[in-house]
# Entry
Amino acid sequence: MNKSPSTKIAAFGENGWIIYFSETDNLLAQALYTNAITKKLRVIPGIIDAVAGADSIVARFSPAHLNSAEAKRAVEQTIDKTPFNDAPTPTKQINIPVCYGGEHGPDVKNICKQNNMTEQTLIDLHAAGRYRVMAVGFAPGFAYMGPLDDRLIMPRLTTPRPSLPAGSVGVAGGFTGVYSLPSPGGWRIIGRTPMPLFQAGGAEPFVFEPGIEVRFTPISASAFNAYGTSSA
Amino acid sequence: MKALATILEPGLQTTVQDAGRPGFRHLGVPHSGAADILSYTFANAAAGAPPNAGALECAIMGPTLKFECDAIIAIAGADMTPLLNGAPIVSYAPVSVKKNDILELGNAARGARAYIAFQKGVSGEAFLDSISTYTPASIGGHQGRALRENDVIFSAELNHGKPVETPPSLRIAFSQDFILRATEGPEAEAFTPEALNHFFTNPFGAGSRGNRMGLQLNSSTNTLTHSIKIMSSAVFPGTVQCPPDGAPFLLLSDAQTLGGYPRIAQVINADLPLTGQLKQGDRVWFHRVDAQTGLEISLQRQDLIQIVSSDFCFF
# Structure
């Protein structure tokens, strides 16, 4: 109960440290733990980047403020001082409308065939999930969310698609996510949301933060096309 | 706003860049900024512009522009044989231009990127305290994209200082062979000792798949194929990732923030500017250094650059 995962630390580049966390079956708790650590690290003078990955964090330091040993000590002390909570509650909840299948979900058919299910089952399974944001990154507005129903777990495409439209909703491994920008991508695409997930000019450019709960709601193609045209 | 110049020909990829957007990788926001921070710094210093002023980054094939006002400019980086009204002009030094003058940059014979700095800076759209252009998210610079024909760029009207020319010994010596000093990456030891030694002793060719995010490297041998699996973890400009097919990928200033391929090496900060000067067909060697040596080299280099730009910092 509430036992922190063990860690291993190693140099990454001439001004960075990488900390690996032992394997855990509670990915969400681990994700929130590493995010809590990096949040504390970012306010330490001389720490110029602290980025959480799935099972690691990387902290980079400015040698004008911290030498390598001091930076390492700051990281280790921050880890020691951060409690591990194995049942974290969501901070907020957002709902993302998704038009599943058809032109917006080119991988729906192959996932259904592979897992011997109907398109409606796939949609029901994905939309029934109560996902939590595990990590934010890769690109502005991209979030890794999970856990994913076992029946939707699929490997990445062996050859990524050269371009995907913004809003493409995909699955890969145990995660689901939404491509916030037009980009190449290897996740299997099951639908598309008309909701913008990164708005550089907006008051709050970023929708996601680690720990929040995300739900997906199926919408029709006409609702997809009409999104944003009403006063709502 | 004061019009600075009109783009007559945009070149291959001309973007507004500054020193970048550091410290936001946890939000998925890349560093961006000049791919060769050194030549960018030299251009600004030579123009008398403040250290973080917006400048034009010109990739491979430079632009042609017509000035809309009198200005002081300076050019640095890859030699694109700049011509002012058809006559050659010096680089790494201030040049006075008049309204309606035409500046024309050609192809880079050596290196990949040249910088055109303006004494009062180029203006651009700010996002997270930087006007550097990051085209994948359409942020910064001129509408978040590379410049096009007939675009007009505007002066930032910044307070400027005294132009400082770049001593020749500080400039990047351009050739088609690059040696990049690098530390072993977090997954280096997951490769066989033979593969790792091979990586640090043999040249790679800069491939055709390249942009500001990264550059694919080719090798005549295929010693780096592997089946190492890692969970998504932080990557940075200068990280060398190895996909299973064995063709490494060198990440540049627009690099994504997380990656799922093993990281075999990390280029030291002092040599990062060189990565922005690699183009297809160039050869690159990775020379192994330990972290402490890498840090000493970068700090010594930084100290020298501060002769020209006193606030310059690699970190």
Remarks:
- Chain A has a mean pLDDT of 91.
- The interface with chain B takes residues 10-16, 18, 38, 42, 48-58, 60-64, 68, 135-142, 144, 180-183, 198, 200, 205-206 of chain A (CB under 8 Å).
- The first helix of chain A runs from residue 27 to 42.
